[in-house]
Design goal:
single chain, 122 residues, mainly alpha, rod-shaped
Length: 122
């Protein structure tokens, strides 16, 4: 199994500052044996929180905040779906009542062969 390398805070800041200064990411990646995706994550953290965003504690706090945001979004979605279900339940109950009244109305009763009015000419 490959050993996971640990990079110092200073090293990460140096790489990010070189990226922001315009050095080619591919060249930096090859020169230091780094994954470009990792370098971009470092850059994003640096942009969000500056040099303090490069510490492990800042990374953990960001993940926790992001998880809280996701949880809040899920709670909002659940609330929205519950409101939709509530509206649909009201509509269903309304139409059940309408159909019940239609069934019970005298006009809905089956009719015989006799017409209620005479045909013209009779």
């Amino acid at each position: 199994m490959a050993h996971k390398r640990q990079h110092s805070r200073e090293f990460r800041i140096e790489i990010v500052e070189r990226m922001l200064a315009g050095e080619k990411v591919m060249a930096l990646s090859q020169q230091h044996g780094l994954a470009r995706s990792m370098m971009y994550r470092w850059r994003d953290a640096y942009r969000r929180q500056g040099a303090s965003g490069m510490s492990k504690a800042a990374k953990a706090a960001y993940k926790q905040a992001k998880a809280g945001d996701s949880e809040q979004k899920l709670r909002e979605r659940i609330a929205q779906l519950e409101r939709t279900i509530g509206r649909q339940t009201v509509e269903i109950d309304f139409f059940k009542g309408v159909f019940k009244r239609l069934k019970e109305s005298p006009q809905a009763q089956p009719r015989g062969d006799k017409a209620s009015t005479r045909r013209s000419g009779e």
